[in-house]
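ok here's the first one, seq then C-alpha coordinates
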Amino acid sequence: MLAVACVVVFLYLLCGWVSRFGDTGDFGERSPRAESLVRIAWRVCCSIPVLFIACRGGMSWRELGFERPRPRDGLIALILSVLVTGAGGLTWLMWCFRDLFRTGPRFDRLESLNGEPADIAADAEPMAWQLPPMDTTALGHTLNVAAEIANGFCEELSMRAYLLMRLRAATGSWSVAIRGSTAVFAASHVQYDAYGRASVFVFGLVLAAGWLITRNLWVVAAAHALGDLLITGFLQAEE
Protein backbone atom coordinates (compact mmCIF):
# COMPACT_ATOMS: atom_id res chain seq x y z
CA MET A 1 0.00 0.00 0.00
CA LEU A 2 2.83 2.39 0.87
CA ALA A 3 4.59 1.55 -2.40
CA VAL A 4 1.41 2.31 -4.38
CA ALA A 5 1.00 5.63 -2.56
CA CYS A 6 4.62 6.56 -3.27
CA VAL A 7 4.25 5.79 -6.98
CA VAL A 8 1.04 7.83 -7.23
CA VAL A 9 2.61 10.81 -5.43
CA PHE A 10 5.72 10.64 -7.62
CA LEU A 11 3.68 10.57 -10.83
CA TYR A 12 1.47 13.38 -9.58
CA LEU A 13 4.53 15.54 -8.88
CA LEU A 14 6.00 14.64 -12.27
CA CYS A 15 2.71 15.60 -13.92
CA GLY A 16 2.69 18.94 -12.12
CA TRP A 17 6.32 19.69 -12.93
CA VAL A 18 5.93 18.94 -16.63
CA SER A 19 2.68 20.90 -16.68
CA ARG A 20 4.46 24.02 -15.37
CA PHE A 21 7.72 23.90 -17.27
CA GLY A 22 7.16 21.81 -20.39
CA ASP A 23 10.10 21.64 -22.80
CA THR A 24 10.51 25.39 -23.13
CA GLY A 25 10.35 26.65 -19.56
CA ASP A 26 7.19 28.57 -20.40
CA PHE A 27 4.74 28.72 -17.51
CA GLY A 28 1.81 29.60 -19.78
CA GLU A 29 1.63 26.87 -22.42
CA ARG A 30 2.89 23.33 -22.67
CA SER A 31 4.82 22.07 -25.67
CA PRO A 32 3.42 19.00 -27.52
CA ARG A 33 6.02 16.74 -25.89
CA ALA A 34 5.16 18.04 -22.44
CA GLU A 35 1.47 17.56 -23.18
CA SER A 36 2.10 13.91 -24.07
CA LEU A 37 4.13 13.37 -20.90
CA VAL A 38 1.39 14.91 -18.79
CA ARG A 39 -1.22 12.66 -20.39
CA ILE A 40 0.91 9.56 -19.78
CA ALA A 41 1.56 10.47 -16.14
CA TRP A 42 -2.08 11.35 -15.51
CA ARG A 43 -3.41 8.11 -17.02
CA VAL A 44 -0.99 6.01 -15.02
CA CYS A 45 -2.00 7.91 -11.87
CA CYS A 46 -5.64 7.10 -12.61
CA SER A 47 -5.06 3.44 -13.49
CA ILE A 48 -3.30 2.50 -10.25
CA PRO A 49 -6.19 3.41 -7.89
CA VAL A 50 -8.70 1.66 -10.21
CA LEU A 51 -6.63 -1.52 -10.11
CA PHE A 52 -6.29 -1.26 -6.34
CA ILE A 53 -10.04 -0.71 -5.80
CA ALA A 54 -10.97 -3.52 -8.19
CA CYS A 55 -8.64 -6.01 -6.52
CA ARG A 56 -9.75 -4.96 -3.04
CA GLY A 57 -13.32 -5.47 -4.22
CA GLY A 58 -12.63 -9.10 -5.05
CA MET A 59 -12.17 -8.90 -8.82
CA SER A 60 -9.52 -11.22 -10.20
CA TRP A 61 -7.01 -10.31 -12.88
CA ARG A 62 -8.91 -12.53 -15.29
CA GLU A 63 -12.18 -10.73 -14.56
CA LEU A 64 -10.43 -7.45 -15.35
CA GLY A 65 -9.47 -8.80 -18.76
CA PHE A 66 -5.78 -9.51 -18.24
CA GLU A 67 -5.83 -12.47 -20.60
CA ARG A 68 -3.07 -13.62 -22.91
CA PRO A 69 -3.88 -12.26 -26.39
CA ARG A 70 -4.85 -14.85 -28.99
CA PRO A 71 -3.96 -14.65 -32.71
CA ARG A 72 -7.49 -13.57 -33.67
CA ASP A 73 -7.51 -10.77 -31.09
CA GLY A 74 -5.31 -8.58 -33.27
CA LEU A 75 -7.86 -8.78 -36.08
CA ILE A 76 -10.70 -8.01 -33.65
CA ALA A 77 -8.81 -4.98 -32.32
CA LEU A 78 -8.25 -3.73 -35.88
CA ILE A 79 -11.95 -4.14 -36.76
CA LEU A 80 -13.01 -2.35 -33.57
CA SER A 81 -10.61 0.52 -34.27
CA VAL A 82 -12.10 0.96 -37.75
CA LEU A 83 -15.61 1.00 -36.28
CA VAL A 84 -14.76 3.57 -33.61
CA THR A 85 -13.00 5.69 -36.21
CA GLY A 86 -16.21 5.56 -38.24
CA ALA A 87 -18.10 6.83 -35.21
CA GLY A 88 -15.70 9.76 -34.95
CA GLY A 89 -16.03 10.45 -38.66
CA LEU A 90 -19.80 10.48 -38.38
CA THR A 91 -19.61 13.13 -35.69
CA TRP A 92 -17.24 15.18 -37.83
CA LEU A 93 -19.84 15.11 -40.63
CA MET A 94 -22.55 16.08 -38.14
CA TRP A 95 -20.41 19.05 -37.09
CA CYS A 96 -20.00 20.14 -40.72
CA PHE A 97 -23.70 19.85 -41.49
CA ARG A 98 -24.58 21.66 -38.28
CA ASP A 99 -22.51 24.62 -39.37
CA LEU A 100 -23.86 24.41 -42.93
CA PHE A 101 -27.49 24.74 -41.90
CA ARG A 102 -27.03 27.33 -39.18
CA THR A 103 -28.50 30.72 -40.04
CA GLY A 104 -27.75 34.22 -38.89
CA PRO A 105 -24.58 36.32 -38.87
CA ARG A 106 -22.94 34.37 -36.03
CA PHE A 107 -22.94 31.00 -37.84
CA ASP A 108 -23.11 31.82 -41.54
CA ARG A 109 -21.20 29.11 -43.45
CA LEU A 110 -23.21 29.26 -46.68
CA GLU A 111 -21.46 30.07 -49.91
CA SER A 112 -22.01 33.43 -51.49
CA LEU A 113 -23.65 33.74 -54.91
CA ASN A 114 -20.33 33.95 -56.77
CA GLY A 115 -19.26 30.56 -55.39
CA GLU A 116 -16.72 31.92 -52.92
CA PRO A 117 -17.05 30.98 -49.22
CA ALA A 118 -18.93 33.59 -47.25
CA ASP A 119 -17.04 35.47 -44.57
CA ILE A 120 -17.49 34.22 -41.03
CA ALA A 121 -18.39 36.82 -38.47
CA ALA A 122 -15.63 37.66 -36.02
CA ASP A 123 -17.88 36.85 -33.12
CA ALA A 124 -18.75 33.36 -34.38
CA GLU A 125 -18.82 30.73 -31.67
CA PRO A 126 -15.57 28.75 -31.49
CA MET A 127 -15.35 25.01 -31.09
CA ALA A 128 -15.41 23.87 -27.47
CA TRP A 129 -12.12 22.02 -27.90
CA GLN A 130 -9.13 22.52 -30.16
CA LEU A 131 -6.55 19.93 -31.17
CA PRO A 132 -3.16 20.49 -29.53
CA PRO A 133 -0.20 21.32 -31.80
CA MET A 134 1.56 18.28 -33.23
CA ASP A 135 5.24 17.53 -32.75
CA THR A 136 6.31 15.98 -36.06
CA THR A 137 9.69 14.68 -34.83
CA ALA A 138 10.28 10.98 -34.20
CA LEU A 139 10.30 11.58 -30.44
CA GLY A 140 7.11 13.61 -30.67
CA HIS A 141 5.29 10.86 -32.57
CA THR A 142 6.58 8.23 -30.13
CA LEU A 143 5.34 10.21 -27.11
CA ASN A 144 1.99 10.81 -28.80
CA VAL A 145 1.52 7.10 -29.49
CA ALA A 146 2.55 6.27 -25.91
CA ALA A 147 0.04 8.83 -24.60
CA GLU A 148 -2.78 7.29 -26.65
CA ILE A 149 -1.85 3.79 -25.46
CA ALA A 150 -1.89 4.97 -21.84
CA ASN A 151 -5.21 6.72 -22.42
CA GLY A 152 -6.77 3.65 -24.06
CA PHE A 153 -5.60 1.35 -21.28
CA CYS A 154 -6.79 3.65 -18.48
CA GLU A 155 -10.23 4.35 -19.94
CA GLU A 156 -10.94 0.75 -20.90
CA LEU A 157 -9.78 -0.49 -17.50
CA SER A 158 -12.00 2.06 -15.74
CA MET A 159 -15.10 2.03 -17.93
CA ARG A 160 -15.34 -1.44 -19.42
CA ALA A 161 -13.33 -3.84 -17.26
CA TYR A 162 -14.39 -2.28 -13.94
CA LEU A 163 -17.47 -0.03 -14.16
CA LEU A 164 -19.41 -2.07 -16.72
CA MET A 165 -18.87 -5.31 -14.82
CA ARG A 166 -19.71 -3.70 -11.47
CA LEU A 167 -22.94 -2.27 -12.87
CA ARG A 168 -23.79 -5.70 -14.28
CA ALA A 169 -23.25 -7.28 -10.87
CA ALA A 170 -25.28 -4.56 -9.10
CA THR A 171 -28.25 -4.43 -11.50
CA GLY A 172 -28.29 -7.88 -13.07
CA SER A 173 -28.84 -6.27 -16.47
CA TRP A 174 -26.33 -6.13 -19.31
CA SER A 175 -28.35 -3.37 -20.99
CA VAL A 176 -28.23 -1.11 -17.92
CA ALA A 177 -24.54 -1.86 -17.41
CA ILE A 178 -23.60 -1.06 -21.00
CA ARG A 179 -25.68 2.11 -21.23
CA GLY A 180 -24.70 3.32 -17.76
CA SER A 181 -20.95 2.83 -18.19
CA THR A 182 -21.03 4.32 -21.69
CA ALA A 183 -22.98 7.35 -20.45
CA VAL A 184 -20.34 7.94 -17.75
CA PHE A 185 -17.63 7.50 -20.39
CA ALA A 186 -19.25 10.12 -22.65
CA ALA A 187 -19.94 12.54 -19.79
CA SER A 188 -16.30 12.40 -18.71
CA HIS A 189 -15.26 14.02 -21.99
CA VAL A 190 -16.24 17.48 -20.83
CA GLN A 191 -13.95 19.17 -23.39
CA TYR A 192 -16.38 18.29 -26.21
CA ASP A 193 -19.73 19.78 -27.10
CA ALA A 194 -22.95 17.75 -27.36
CA TYR A 195 -22.03 16.41 -30.80
CA GLY A 196 -18.62 15.32 -29.59
CA ARG A 197 -20.07 13.56 -26.56
CA ALA A 198 -22.62 11.81 -28.78
CA SER A 199 -19.71 10.48 -30.85
CA VAL A 200 -17.91 9.36 -27.69
CA PHE A 201 -21.09 7.55 -26.62
CA VAL A 202 -21.17 5.60 -29.91
CA PHE A 203 -17.41 5.05 -29.55
CA GLY A 204 -18.04 3.57 -26.10
CA LEU A 205 -20.88 1.32 -27.30
CA VAL A 206 -18.61 -0.21 -29.93
CA LEU A 207 -15.87 -0.83 -27.39
CA ALA A 208 -18.39 -2.26 -24.90
CA ALA A 209 -19.45 -4.74 -27.58
CA GLY A 210 -15.79 -5.60 -28.17
CA TRP A 211 -15.29 -6.14 -24.44
CA LEU A 212 -18.30 -8.47 -24.21
CA ILE A 213 -17.05 -10.49 -27.20
CA THR A 214 -13.42 -10.86 -26.13
CA ARG A 215 -13.31 -10.13 -22.37
CA ASN A 216 -9.73 -9.12 -23.09
CA LEU A 217 -8.53 -5.75 -21.83
CA TRP A 218 -5.58 -5.66 -24.22
CA VAL A 219 -7.88 -5.95 -27.23
CA VAL A 220 -10.24 -3.10 -26.34
CA ALA A 221 -7.37 -0.92 -25.09
CA ALA A 222 -5.49 -1.43 -28.39
CA ALA A 223 -8.65 -0.70 -30.40
CA HIS A 224 -9.28 2.44 -28.33
CA ALA A 225 -5.73 3.73 -28.78
CA LEU A 226 -5.64 2.97 -32.52
CA GLY A 227 -9.05 4.56 -33.02
CA ASP A 228 -7.92 7.72 -31.21
CA LEU A 229 -4.76 7.87 -33.32
CA LEU A 230 -6.71 7.49 -36.55
CA ILE A 231 -9.26 10.14 -35.59
CA THR A 232 -6.59 12.58 -34.37
CA GLY A 233 -4.50 12.01 -37.47
CA PHE A 234 -7.48 12.68 -39.71
CA LEU A 235 -8.38 15.88 -37.87
CA GLN A 236 -4.77 17.08 -37.89
CA ALA A 237 -4.66 16.47 -41.66
CA GLU A 238 -7.84 18.50 -42.09
CA GLU A 239 -6.23 21.45 -40.31
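and now the second one, same deal
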Amino acid sequence: MNGVLPILLATLIVTGIPHAQAARNGDKNIGWPGKTLEGEPCQGKEQGFGPFDYNDPTYTVPGLYTKHGSSSESPLRFVEKAHFTPPVERLQKGRTAPLPFDIDYTLRAFPNHLPALWSMIRFQLRYLDKKRKYGQRTPIDQFPPPECYLQRAEVFAPEDNMVKLLHAIYLHKRGLLDKALKYYTRIEKALANNPELHYNMGLLYYRKGDIAKAREHAKRAYELGYQLPGLRNLLRAHDRAATGGDKGPAGGGSQAPSR
Protein backbone atom coordinates (compact mmCIF):
# COMPACT_ATOMS: atom_id res chain seq x y z
CA MET A 1 0.00 0.00 0.00
CA ASN A 2 2.77 2.46 0.87
CA GLY A 3 4.28 1.90 -2.56
CA VAL A 4 1.02 2.97 -4.14
CA LEU A 5 0.65 6.22 -2.23
CA PRO A 6 3.04 8.46 -4.21
CA ILE A 7 1.71 7.10 -7.49
CA LEU A 8 -1.90 7.55 -6.46
CA LEU A 9 -1.46 11.13 -5.28
CA ALA A 10 0.63 12.02 -8.33
CA THR A 11 -2.11 10.59 -10.50
CA LEU A 12 -4.73 12.68 -8.74
CA ILE A 13 -2.68 15.82 -9.34
CA VAL A 14 -1.65 15.09 -12.93
CA THR A 15 -5.11 13.99 -14.00
CA GLY A 16 -6.58 17.26 -12.85
CA ILE A 17 -10.00 17.91 -11.41
CA PRO A 18 -12.45 20.45 -12.83
CA HIS A 19 -13.61 23.01 -10.30
CA ALA A 20 -16.62 21.49 -8.56
CA GLN A 21 -19.18 24.25 -8.96
CA ALA A 22 -21.60 22.50 -6.62
CA ALA A 23 -19.23 22.39 -3.63
CA ARG A 24 -20.93 23.64 -0.46
CA ASN A 25 -18.25 26.12 0.58
CA GLY A 26 -18.88 27.64 3.99
CA ASP A 27 -21.89 25.41 4.73
CA LYS A 28 -21.64 24.92 8.49
CA ASN A 29 -24.68 22.62 8.42
CA ILE A 30 -23.22 19.89 6.24
CA GLY A 31 -22.98 17.59 9.26
CA TRP A 32 -22.12 13.93 8.76
CA PRO A 33 -24.39 12.49 6.06
CA GLY A 34 -24.53 8.79 5.29
CA LYS A 35 -24.07 5.57 7.23
CA THR A 36 -21.21 3.33 8.28
CA LEU A 37 -20.68 -0.03 6.60
CA GLU A 38 -22.48 -1.52 9.60
CA GLY A 39 -25.54 0.64 8.88
CA GLU A 40 -25.12 3.10 11.76
CA PRO A 41 -25.55 6.86 11.18
CA CYS A 42 -22.26 8.67 10.64
CA GLN A 43 -21.26 10.92 13.53
CA GLY A 44 -18.29 13.23 13.97
CA LYS A 45 -17.17 16.52 15.43
CA GLU A 46 -18.95 19.76 14.62
CA GLN A 47 -17.80 21.98 11.80
CA GLY A 48 -15.07 24.48 12.70
CA PHE A 49 -13.00 26.40 10.15
CA GLY A 50 -14.45 25.91 6.67
CA PRO A 51 -15.64 23.81 5.00
CA PHE A 52 -13.74 24.71 1.84
CA ASP A 53 -13.29 23.04 -1.52
CA TYR A 54 -9.83 21.52 -1.99
CA ASN A 55 -10.08 22.18 -5.75
CA ASP A 56 -11.23 25.83 -5.62
CA PRO A 57 -8.44 28.39 -6.08
CA THR A 58 -10.36 30.82 -3.89
CA TYR A 59 -9.32 28.72 -0.91
CA THR A 60 -6.00 27.34 -2.15
CA VAL A 61 -4.24 30.31 -3.80
CA PRO A 62 -2.85 33.08 -1.57
CA GLY A 63 -4.58 36.45 -1.85
CA LEU A 64 -7.96 35.30 -3.16
CA TYR A 65 -9.73 34.66 0.16
CA THR A 66 -10.20 37.73 2.35
CA LYS A 67 -13.25 36.95 4.46
CA HIS A 68 -11.19 36.48 7.61
CA GLY A 69 -8.91 39.47 7.02
CA SER A 70 -5.33 38.65 6.01
CA SER A 71 -4.91 37.45 2.44
CA SER A 72 -1.21 36.59 2.68
CA GLU A 73 -2.00 32.90 3.19
CA SER A 74 -4.67 30.74 1.65
CA PRO A 75 -6.99 28.79 3.95
CA LEU A 76 -5.44 25.58 2.61
CA ARG A 77 -1.93 26.69 3.50
CA PHE A 78 -3.13 27.84 6.92
CA VAL A 79 -4.68 24.43 7.66
CA GLU A 80 -1.86 22.34 6.23
CA LYS A 81 0.88 24.30 7.99
CA ALA A 82 -0.85 23.85 11.35
CA HIS A 83 -2.28 20.35 10.96
CA PHE A 84 -1.37 18.44 7.80
CA THR A 85 2.41 18.50 7.88
CA PRO A 86 4.54 15.89 6.06
CA PRO A 87 4.95 13.73 9.22
CA VAL A 88 1.16 13.74 9.64
CA GLU A 89 0.60 12.79 6.02
CA ARG A 90 3.16 9.98 6.33
CA LEU A 91 1.46 8.82 9.56
CA GLN A 92 4.65 9.25 11.56
CA LYS A 93 3.33 11.57 14.27
CA GLY A 94 0.64 14.15 14.97
CA ARG A 95 1.24 17.90 14.83
CA THR A 96 -1.02 19.24 17.61
CA ALA A 97 -2.24 15.94 19.09
CA PRO A 98 -1.79 12.20 18.54
CA LEU A 99 -2.85 10.80 15.19
CA PRO A 100 -5.37 11.06 13.64
CA PHE A 101 -6.61 14.31 15.29
CA ASP A 102 -4.86 16.59 12.79
CA ILE A 103 -6.10 14.57 9.83
CA ASP A 104 -9.63 14.85 11.18
CA TYR A 105 -9.27 18.62 11.54
CA THR A 106 -7.97 18.90 7.98
CA LEU A 107 -10.91 16.91 6.62
CA ARG A 108 -13.46 18.92 8.53
CA ALA A 109 -11.95 22.10 7.06
CA PHE A 110 -11.45 20.63 3.56
CA PRO A 111 -13.78 17.61 3.21
CA ASN A 112 -12.43 16.63 -0.22
CA HIS A 113 -8.75 17.05 0.68
CA LEU A 114 -7.50 14.01 -1.24
CA PRO A 115 -4.16 13.42 0.51
CA ALA A 116 -5.83 13.76 3.92
CA LEU A 117 -8.58 11.33 2.93
CA TRP A 118 -5.93 8.86 1.80
CA SER A 119 -4.01 9.28 5.06
CA MET A 120 -7.16 8.72 7.13
CA ILE A 121 -7.97 5.58 5.15
CA ARG A 122 -4.48 4.16 5.64
CA PHE A 123 -4.37 5.05 9.32
CA GLN A 124 -7.69 3.43 10.12
CA LEU A 125 -6.92 0.30 8.11
CA ARG A 126 -3.91 -0.21 10.39
CA TYR A 127 -6.21 -0.81 13.35
CA LEU A 128 -9.32 -2.24 11.75
CA ASP A 129 -8.42 -5.91 12.10
CA LYS A 130 -7.47 -5.58 15.77
CA LYS A 131 -10.64 -3.69 16.51
CA ARG A 132 -12.86 -6.17 14.66
CA LYS A 133 -11.19 -9.41 15.77
CA TYR A 134 -10.26 -8.67 19.36
CA GLY A 135 -12.43 -5.73 20.37
CA GLN A 136 -9.33 -3.80 21.38
CA ARG A 137 -9.47 -0.09 22.06
CA THR A 138 -7.58 1.73 19.32
CA PRO A 139 -6.75 5.32 18.30
CA ILE A 140 -9.59 5.24 15.77
CA ASP A 141 -12.35 4.61 18.33
CA GLN A 142 -13.34 8.26 18.71
CA PHE A 143 -13.33 9.09 15.00
CA PRO A 144 -15.79 8.32 12.21
CA PRO A 145 -14.74 5.44 9.94
CA PRO A 146 -13.33 6.29 6.49
CA GLU A 147 -16.64 5.70 4.73
CA CYS A 148 -18.13 8.59 6.72
CA TYR A 149 -15.38 11.03 5.73
CA LEU A 150 -15.78 9.86 2.13
CA GLN A 151 -19.57 10.24 2.09
CA ARG A 152 -19.25 13.68 3.67
CA ALA A 153 -16.79 14.68 0.95
CA GLU A 154 -19.12 13.38 -1.76
CA VAL A 155 -22.07 15.37 -0.40
CA PHE A 156 -19.88 18.46 0.01
CA ALA A 157 -18.37 18.27 -3.51
CA PRO A 158 -20.56 15.94 -5.61
CA GLU A 159 -18.67 16.71 -8.83
CA ASP A 160 -15.32 15.58 -7.42
CA ASN A 161 -14.90 12.17 -9.01
CA MET A 162 -11.51 11.64 -7.39
CA VAL A 163 -13.23 11.35 -4.02
CA LYS A 164 -15.40 8.61 -5.51
CA LEU A 165 -12.25 6.87 -6.76
CA LEU A 166 -10.79 6.92 -3.25
CA HIS A 167 -14.09 5.53 -1.94
CA ALA A 168 -13.91 2.69 -4.46
CA ILE A 169 -10.32 1.90 -3.51
CA TYR A 170 -11.25 1.90 0.18
CA LEU A 171 -14.14 -0.52 -0.37
CA HIS A 172 -11.81 -2.62 -2.53
CA LYS A 173 -9.27 -2.75 0.30
CA ARG A 174 -12.02 -3.86 2.68
CA GLY A 175 -12.83 -6.76 0.37
CA LEU A 176 -16.25 -5.39 -0.56
CA LEU A 177 -15.75 -6.10 -4.24
CA ASP A 178 -19.32 -5.64 -5.48
CA LYS A 179 -19.69 -2.31 -3.69
CA ALA A 180 -16.30 -1.19 -4.97
CA LEU A 181 -17.17 -2.19 -8.53
CA LYS A 182 -20.32 -0.05 -8.42
CA TYR A 183 -18.18 2.95 -7.48
CA TYR A 184 -15.58 2.21 -10.14
CA THR A 185 -18.15 1.79 -12.92
CA ARG A 186 -20.00 4.93 -11.82
CA ILE A 187 -16.92 7.05 -12.56
CA GLU A 188 -15.34 4.97 -15.33
CA LYS A 189 -16.52 7.26 -18.14
CA ALA A 190 -15.57 10.48 -16.35
CA LEU A 191 -12.10 9.13 -15.48
CA ALA A 192 -11.51 7.23 -18.70
CA ASN A 193 -7.92 8.49 -18.88
CA ASN A 194 -7.02 7.89 -15.25
CA PRO A 195 -4.50 5.02 -14.95
CA GLU A 196 -5.18 4.54 -11.21
CA LEU A 197 -8.82 3.75 -11.97
CA HIS A 198 -7.96 1.19 -14.64
CA TYR A 199 -5.23 -0.45 -12.58
CA ASN A 200 -7.51 -0.97 -9.62
CA MET A 201 -10.42 -2.12 -11.77
CA GLY A 202 -8.06 -4.64 -13.33
CA LEU A 203 -7.07 -5.92 -9.90
CA LEU A 204 -10.70 -6.17 -8.86
CA TYR A 205 -11.75 -8.07 -11.98
CA TYR A 206 -8.78 -10.39 -11.54
CA ARG A 207 -9.87 -11.13 -7.99
CA LYS A 208 -13.42 -11.80 -9.21
CA GLY A 209 -12.07 -14.22 -11.82
CA ASP A 210 -12.96 -12.11 -14.87
CA ILE A 211 -9.58 -12.34 -16.59
CA ALA A 212 -10.77 -10.78 -19.85
CA LYS A 213 -11.89 -7.64 -18.05
CA ALA A 214 -8.73 -7.61 -15.98
CA ARG A 215 -6.66 -7.67 -19.20
CA GLU A 216 -8.73 -4.88 -20.71
CA HIS A 217 -8.12 -2.55 -17.78
CA ALA A 218 -4.48 -3.60 -17.38
CA LYS A 219 -3.83 -2.73 -21.02
CA ARG A 220 -5.38 0.70 -20.57
CA ALA A 221 -3.59 1.40 -17.28
CA TYR A 222 -0.15 0.62 -18.72
CA GLU A 223 -0.92 2.53 -21.93
CA LEU A 224 -1.58 5.53 -19.68
CA GLY A 225 1.79 5.09 -18.00
CA TYR A 226 1.00 3.24 -14.77
CA GLN A 227 4.21 2.10 -13.08
CA LEU A 228 3.46 -0.70 -10.59
CA PRO A 229 3.89 -4.14 -12.22
CA GLY A 230 1.60 -6.04 -9.84
CA LEU A 231 -1.36 -6.48 -12.18
CA ARG A 232 0.86 -7.33 -15.15
CA ASN A 233 2.66 -9.95 -13.06
CA LEU A 234 -0.62 -11.46 -11.89
CA LEU A 235 -1.84 -11.86 -15.45
CA ARG A 236 1.45 -13.33 -16.62
CA ALA A 237 1.42 -15.80 -13.75
CA HIS A 238 -2.15 -16.73 -14.68
CA ASP A 239 -1.11 -17.37 -18.26
CA ARG A 240 1.83 -19.55 -17.22
CA ALA A 241 -0.40 -21.59 -14.93
CA ALA A 242 -3.03 -21.96 -17.65
CA THR A 243 -0.52 -23.24 -20.21
CA GLY A 244 1.59 -25.24 -17.80
CA GLY A 245 4.57 -23.08 -18.70
CA ASP A 246 7.53 -22.48 -16.42
CA LYS A 247 9.27 -19.40 -17.74
CA GLY A 248 10.39 -17.80 -14.49
CA PRO A 249 9.39 -14.44 -13.09
CA ALA A 250 7.66 -11.92 -15.32
CA GLY A 251 9.59 -8.82 -16.30
CA GLY A 252 9.06 -5.41 -14.77
CA GLY A 253 9.92 -6.25 -11.17
CA SER A 254 8.66 -8.62 -8.54
CA GLN A 255 6.59 -6.29 -6.36
CA ALA A 256 3.46 -7.95 -5.03
CA PRO A 257 0.13 -6.48 -6.03
CA SER A 258 -1.01 -3.75 -3.68
CA ARG A 259 -4.59 -4.88 -3.41
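notes on #2: The chain has two domains: 1-17+160-259, 24-159. Confidence is low (pLDDT under 50) at residues 13-21, 247-259.
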